[in-house]
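@channel anyone free to eyeball this complex?
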Amino acid sequence: MQPAYVVETEQLSKFFKDKASKTQITALTDLNIKIEKGKLTALIGPDGAGKTTLMRMICGLMVPSEGKLTVLGRDITDRPQLVQNLLSYMPQKFGLYEDLTCQENMNLYADLHGVPQDVRKERFAKLLHMTGLAPFTGRLAGKLSGGMKQKLGLACTLVRSPSLLLLDEPTVGVDPLSRRELWEILKQLVSDEHISVLVSTAYMDEAAMCQHIIMLNHGKVLANETPEALLDVARGLCFVAATPPGIPARNLQAALLDDKENVIDAVPESGNVRFTVHSTDCIEKLAALKAFPGLQTWPVDVSLEDSFMMLLKKSETDPDDSPEFSLEYNKMPERSDQVLIEVRDLVRKFGDFIAVNNTSFQVHKGEIFGLLGPNGAGKSTTFKMLCGLLPATSGVLSVAGMDLRTARAQARANVGYVAQKFSMYANMSVKQNLRFFGGVYGLEPRHLNERIEEVMREFNLTSVAQKSAGDLPGGYKQRLSMAVGLIHRPPILFLDEPTSGIDPVARRTFWRQITAFAAAGTTIIITTHFMEEAEYCDRIMIQDQGKMIILGTPEHVRKEGGNSRTMNEAFISIVETNRNAGT
Amino acid sequence: MHDSLSLFLRRVLFMIRKELITTLRDPKSQIILILPVLVQGFLYGYVANYNLDEAPYAVLDQSRSKYSVELVSKFDGSGLFKRARTLSNATQIADCIDSGDTVMVLTIGPEFAKQIASGQSAPIQVITDGRNTMTSGVVAGYASAIVANYNSELQNNQNLIDVKSITWYNPNQLTHWGFLASLLPMMSLSQIMMLAGLSVAREREDGTFEQLLVTPLGPIEILIGKAVPPILIGLAQCTLVLMLSVFWFKVKFVGSLATLYLTLLIFLISCVGIGLSISAISSSMQQVMVYNFVVLMPIMLLSGMSTPVRNMPEVLQYITYINPLRFAIEAVRRIYLEGATLGIIAPDFIPMVIVAAVTMPTAGWLFRHKLS
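replying in thread with the prediction:
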C-alpha cells in the first residue's frame, strides 16, 4: 500500500557550524510535518527561515542533524539514491547550460536521467507544449528571458515523471506574466499526472493557489494549514485607510506602521493604505487620527499576505533595534519641477543584443522614482548607466545638471549609491568603511569625524563600530550600506534592488526609511522586481525586454493597465496589450 | 587650485590607507607576504648553487704505479672529490655513470707510468655525466685543474705560463652571491604582480569596485591608490631579502643603498603597471592567476638570471629589452656586488621607465573601460 504522505518528519533538526565565529547555527528545529500525496503544497517564510535547507534534506543532499525524515515511504538517510530516483528537484538557480539550445538541454537531462528514446518523443512534445517553448527549441538557453529560462528549467526537471517534485522559489524575479504561466503548468501537473509538488515561494498570491501551506520562520513551523484556515488568522482585522489628497500614500502608511500599539502591518495599495490591527477596537484609537483628523477607514477582505505578516510579526521575539527616522506625516511634499535627472533616447547594446532600447525619462527633485520590471528587463543596465558604471551606446544622460559623458566625477559627487549586493570592504571595520568613503567623497577632515558619529547614531551602528563589516548580521549590513550611501549628504540616492533577498518585515522597515529620506528632500531612484513596491513611488517606469512600456504615477499605470487593482495585474495587462500590438 | 590639490592628495591618501588596511588587516595575508620571502631567500641561499663539494667519483687505475697513486691522491685530497668506488675493469664504468652514483669516472691507462717516465704525454680519461651539462662542465673543469697542478709538480714547477685567474666581485665564485642579488627584484616581481593583480579583481568579485567607481574618485587617484601599497610592500620585502643576504649569508653589500632603492622603486613601478593592467582586464581572481602565470614565466626566463642573455637567439635578445626584470637584475647585481654608481646603471632605467609609462596609464584607463 502506498503511504498517504510523501514526506513525514519527526523532530527533524539541522545545525550548521559557522566557521568564522565558531558558533552553531540552527537552520531547523524539531520539525514535525506531513506533506500529503497528490497535492500542491506551498512552503513560505522569510529568507533564512530554513526553506531551502528543508528541501535539500528531503532530496537527500543534506543529512539531518537530528530526528527522522521519511520521503516516499523510505528513510532518506538509508539509501538516498532509491528516493532520488523517484523525485525531481529544481534548485533556485537551476543548472541550465547557457551555450546549449533548449532542445539540447532537454536531451542532456533526459540522458542523465536515463529516459528511454521511445518515451522521450511524447514526453518532450507534451512538455514543450505545456511550457510554450515549442517555437524556441533551437534557441540558446542563455538567450532566453528570465521567465522562459525558468520554464525550460522546469521542463528539464520534468523529463521523467517524478512521484514528488520539489521546486525552490521557481518564480523569484520572474515577470508576473511568466509567473502566472508557470503556475498554470504546476496546477496542470497536479491534476493530470497526480504529482505531489512542494514549492517554496515568496509570493503570497502563489501560496494562495496551493492546497496546503507550511509556513516557516527561524527554523520553526509557524503554520501548517490550508489557505482557508490561514486566512482566519487575520480575518476581520483588515482595513483600508483613504489617503488624504496631496499626501503620498507612503506617509500615511508610515504613520500607521509606526503605531505599533494598534497596527500590526501597513502597506500602500491602490493609492490607499491597507493595514491590519490587533483587534477591531484599535481602529478607534489609531495614532494616525492625530496627524490626519477625519481619516476614513473601512474593513476589507482578508488576504493571505495579511495573515502571513501577522504571524510573522507575532513570532518576532527579538527586540527591534532598527533605527527610527522621524517624519512629519502630514507635511505636504514640496513639489518641484526642477529636473535632476534627464535621460533621452538612451540605448545600450551588448553586441547585437539590445539591453536598453530608446528610453527617455526625467526625474524631478524630491521624487521617489521607481524602475520596475522583471529580471533581465534592462533596469539594471539603465541603472548602471545612470550611475556612470557603464557607458551608454547612444543617448543623453545628465545627473544633477551635469553630463555624464563630460563631467562624470562631479556628477557622481552628487549621488549616493547602494548596490544590490553588499559591497563594503568586508575586512575593514564599520568605522573604517565610513571613514574611507567619507574621505573619498571629499568630506573635510574636521567634519568627517562628526559626520561618521552622526550617521552611526542615525543608523544604530555605534555598537558595532569596531566590527568587521563582513561579520555583521544581514540587517546591519544593509544599514551600513545605506549609511555609506548617505555619508556625504547627497541630493540624489540610487538604490539597486535594495529589497531583494530581505524578509518582508525588513522590507517594511526599509521603505519606512526611504519615506523619511524623501520627506527630507532627497531624490531617490530605486529599482525593484517587486511590482507592488511601485505603490511607494511617486512615479515609476516599467521596463520589459529592454523596452520602456509605461511611465507615470502608480495610479496612471494601474489605470492604463485596465483599471487593475494591483501592479501585478496592471503589468500583465500592459505587457499583453503591448505584445499583441507588436505582432 | 590649492584646494583641489589638497583634495586630490587627501583622496589618494584615503585610497592608500584603505588598500593597506584591506591587505594587511587579515593575519593570513600577513603570513603570505612574509613567509614566501623567507622561504625563497633561504632556498636560493642554500640550494641555488652550482659549486660542488666532495663530488662522488670512481677510479679505474690500470697503471697501478707510483704516479697513478699520486695523481689519485691529489683528487682524493682536493676536497672537491670524494671517491665513491674503485673499479677493477672498464666494464664497470657504464654502471657508475648510469646509476648516478658518481658524477665522474677517472681512468688511468696501463701505459701511464711508462709514458711519464719516458717524458711522453700521458693521456688520462675523464668521463662525466652529460645528462646534467652544468655539473659535468664544473666537474671537468675541476679535474683539469687538479691534473694541471700535478703536471707542474712533475715538471718541478717549471711551467712557463701560469694562469692565475681572479674572479672580481665574487672571488670564490660562489654562485649564490649572484642569485641572492637577483632574488631582490625577482621575488618582489612575483609578489607584486600577485598583489596588484588581485587587488582590482578581488574588488570586482566582491562588488566593491563598483562602489568605488561611483565615488568621485578619478582614474588617476584610483591608480595611485592602487599602485602605492604594493610598491611599499615590495620594498619592505626587498629589505627583508637584503638583510637575509647580508646578515645570514654574509654576502657583502658594497654599493650605495640609495641607488639600490631607487632602482628597485623604478622597477617596482613598472611591475605594478603590468600587474594592474592584468587586473583591470580580468573579471575574476582565477583569471589573474592564469595571466600572471603566463606572463611571469617568460619574464623570468628572459631575464638573464640563470642563463646569459647573450646565449639567446637574436630575436629573443631584442625581446628582452621590454623585460624590466632583465635590467633590474643587471642593475641590482652590479650595485650589490660591484658597487656600481647611479651614473653607471642609469641606462638600465630607460627600459623600465618606458614599461611603466605604457602600463600605468593603460591600467588607469582599463579600470573604467573594461569591455563588458
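from a first look: The mean pLDDT of chain A is 87.
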